[in-house]
Amino acid sequence: MYANFPSLNLQMSDKDAKFAEAPCWYNNITYSDEYRRGFDCREDLMSPGQFLMKLRAGGSVILSASLREEDPGTFKRTFNSYYAKAGELTSYRDILVHNADLLITDHNGRKKINAGFSWMYTGLLRETLIALPGLTLYGLNSPETFEEILDNLIADEQERLFRRTTQVESPLFLAGVLQRYIEFGADEKAVWKKYGVIVRGILESYLPGERKEVSMQPNGLLWAQMDGVALSWMNAYIDGRAVTERAGYQVETNAFWYNSICFAIEMESKYGSKRGKFVSFWSGIRDLVKANFQPMFWNAQRGCLADYVDNSGQNMDIRPNQLLAIWVKYSPVDEMLAPSILRVVDNELVTDRGIRTLSPRDVKYKGVYEGTQIERDLAYHQGCTRPFLLDAFVDLSFRIKGPAFFKKAEWLTEGFYQDLGKHGVGAFSELYDGDPPHEPHGAISSALSTAALLSVEYIKEKYREAQR
What we know:
alpha+beta; three-stranded antiparallel β-sheet; 16 helices; 45% helix
C-alpha cells in the first residue's frame, strides 16, 4: 500500500476456497465519534477482494491474518485450542474474570496490568495498585499473580515510589493494597517481611525535604503543590492548565497517609527488627495527623469533608475523594461522622453507573462527556461517573448499614451488565456521563472498572453467605 508496509497474508482453512481479486479504495471514510471529538477523523480504506467457498449448513471456516504465510492445515486445531482455553462464559462473573485475565498482560515474561483498552498504558503506578486486588485476588483468586505484578511494579517505579511523582497519593495506596491482601488470607508476617521495607521507605519519602511536590507540614499533614500541576488522580489539562489542580491539603492523600502510618506501626510492632525506634517516631506523627485531620477538613454546616484545603480555606466542592477518607481501614475521621459523609456522597454523587466526580449542584458540573477535546476534558473530572469508586462506596455502605444494603448494591451493579453490548462489547467502560441515561465513554475495557465490579461481587457474596 505504501513504502515499508508489511505484507499481510489472508488465508482460509478451506483448501477449496478461492480468492477473487477486486481491489477497491473507499475514500474519505469518516469516523463519527472522532469527528464529534474534533480529532483527525477521515481516512481511505482498501478492500483487496473476496473469498469464495461452499459451506454446508452448520459448517464453519477459519480465516487467518498474519505477517507470514501459515499452514492452513493447522488453523482449525489452533483455533479450537484457543477456544477451549477461553471456556464458556455462563455468568456475569465469568465475563468479569475473563476481562481480568485479558487486562493482565505478559511483557517479556513480566506480568503487568493494562490500565484499559485500547489506548491506555500498561504498568501505570496508580492504576495498577487500585486494580490489583480486584483483578488478581477477587477475580482470578491468584495470590501468586498478585505478588508477581506487585513485585514488577515496585521494580519499575522506584522513582515515583520514593523520590518524585505527580501522583502524590499513589505510593500511599500500597499500604491499603497490602491490607486487602492480608484480609484475603495472606500471612501478615510474610507480607511485612517482604514489603515492609517498601512501606517504610515510602513513608520516609514524605518527610520534610525529601520530595519537592509534596511534604509533611509541622501539623503532620501533607501539603501538595506544584504551580499549574494537578497532583492527584483528577489530572485533566486544557492547553497545559490543570482543570482541577487541588493544591494544598488533599483529603484523600492525607487519609491514605494516616492509614499507611497506622499500618506500618501495627506491623512493625509485631514483626519489626528495630520496632522501638520506628514505632516511637511514627506514633508521634500518627497522633499529630489524627489531631489535625478532622479540624482541617470537617465542615459541620455541610455535614461532610472539604475536598482540599489551601491558603483560602476549605474547598467545599462535593467530590468523591472524601469517600476514600472514611473507607480506609484506619480512618482519621471519627466513626460517628461517617454516616453523614456517606449520606452526602449518596445524595449528590451516586448513580446506577458509578460515582460522579462532582455534584450536579456545582456550577462547574458537566453532565455529558461529548464534544471537542476541551469539552470532554472539562467533563472528565467535573461530573463524569467513575465505576471504580463503587468499590469503596459499597464496602463502606455494607459496613455501616449491614445486609440491609444488599438490594441497593445489586442495583448499583446491574446496569453495567445491561451495557455489555453498548460501548466495548463484553467489557466494562472507564466512565459514564454524569447525567441520565449515563452513556458509557472512555476506554472500552477498563482495569479499574473491572476490578471494582469484581470487588463488589466479592463483597456481595460474603454478605449473601452470611444470610444463608
